[in-house]
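re: ur question from yesterday

yeah so i grabbed the chain u mentioned. its 189 aa long if i counted rite. heres the sequnce exactly as i have it in my notes:
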Amino acid sequence: MLMKFHKFVGANLAVTLIILIAVGSVTNSATNATGQNTSVPNVVDEKSAGTFDCRNPTEYRLVVVENSNRKKDSEPVVPRDLNIVVGDRVISKIELPKESEAKNFSLNSIEKNKAGFEINVDWGSGVSHSEIQFDFKCERSKFYLSKVTKRNFSTTNPDSGNFLDKKKTKVTRIKPNLPIEKFAMIDYL
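ran it thru and got these structure tokens back, copy pasting raw so excuse formatting
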């Protein structure tokens, strides 16, 4: 019994270390992929930013930045945001969850596609873990949340040595599509 517990703790530490390494890699690659300085202006109204073809991936950038305005003195890490940038203007912002809101939160990827873009994240610890994909589509120079795919993994019997052996997938189509300005990621975790 004690040996199984040590294996369980060791596996959790290994998973946590892998997630922390991945967070650093994804943060650096997401920021570096834009080829731009991460300091960008405040969010502006999309109408004042002008129209753009959001189905043309070269007309906008997805930039992960630290937002010190969201940091409380008691928090060790500066929270991050995902900014959607057209030219030199931020037209939309998505606040990424803080550690206090989602244990071991990790931004895994941000990818543009034909319809708009998708965000892949995961979070959890111990005997449960979630992987979530947010699909945003473009219509008339605006982005909308259209679909959320959530995969939950859990351990039904930690003493068995089988970790995250139960999987449940839920796909939610958002009808009507939610404007990105009203999207709060934490509400979907």
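noticed a couple things. Confidence is low (pLDDT under 50) at residues 1-42, 44-49. also DSSP finds two helices and eight strands in the chain.
anyway ttyl
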